[in-house]
Amino acid sequence: MKIRLWVLCLLLIPFLTCGIPQAQCESPESEIQNPKSEISKGEAVKLFADANENYLQAMKLLATKNTAEADRHLREATAQYETMLTGGFKNGQVYYNLGNTYYRRGELGKAIVNYRRAARLIPRNADLDANLRLAKGATEDKELSTEIPVVVKRIFFWLFLLNRNELSIVVVSLYVALMIVLFVSNIRKYAWLRRVFIGFSSALFIAVVSLGIKIYLEQGVNRGVIVTSKCEVRYGPGEEYEPKFEIHNGSECVIEDEKDDWYRVYVKVGVKQDTGSDASPGEKVSSDVRRGWLQKKYVDMI
């Protein structure tokens, strides 16, 4: 009995001392903090405030049709947000604000890639979701709908409402709770503890699987966004290969392979077809999955 209790205690110690702080090392909230950054917290706070002020000034100038001065403020705000990120302050609110700035500048690709980065850190932000849909709707290439059904999002709500760090905290918390239940069950033989143990075990299994899926989707699948007005996707990795099709600013792709300065990408886009004389007005869009090679300089990784 004593040996089993000591084993349980040893299992708990590493999670109680280091598990939870590791999961919380990158805050999903708007608070600015990162101990490994190259710039101080005070400098980051000032940059963030100055960038926000530049953005607000730009909005006021756009309202008065002073586009030249507004563009200057937007460029300054962009540089300040980028300085924070390159300095080590990876923060969802900064990515979101930077996406808004790029959107106002008409750079849809860079806006979308920063919205996507922000969504990984602040997944429950309604404004972010709305702005991402707005930016996607303004792109030239109308991609196939890849929206996950609402019923799936409601059933597996935790997978979509929690970011990776929050899921890590849930996993650690459930593990600690499970170890406490196991510890108590070795001291007190209550029948209901068995049911509690099964419940926590099931919850822990689901949380671990969900965390694995989250990590795979964010790190196991390389995704990118086109950040140039137009680029040619070719049959092979080189200028000597003929173009296969064109893809435009803001289109998203899955990067399957790379060779030298080229990516092999997978994209889903709509193909305009002749609707025929008896068809209703408008354009008919059919689904087409396309693969090809494009230069790395045209893609920004999410």
UniProtKB/TrEMBL annotation:
Gene3D superfamilies: SH3 Domains, Tetratricopeptide repeat domain. TPR repeats lie at residues 92-125. Keywords: Membrane, Signal, TPR repeat, Transmembrane, Transmembrane helix. The keyword ATP-binding does not apply. Pfam families: TPR_1 (PF00515). Residues 1-23 form the signal peptide. The chain crosses the membrane at residues 167-184, 196-217. InterPro entries: TPR-like_helical_dom_sf, TPR_rpt. This is Uncharacterized protein. It comes from Candidatus Brocadia carolinensis.
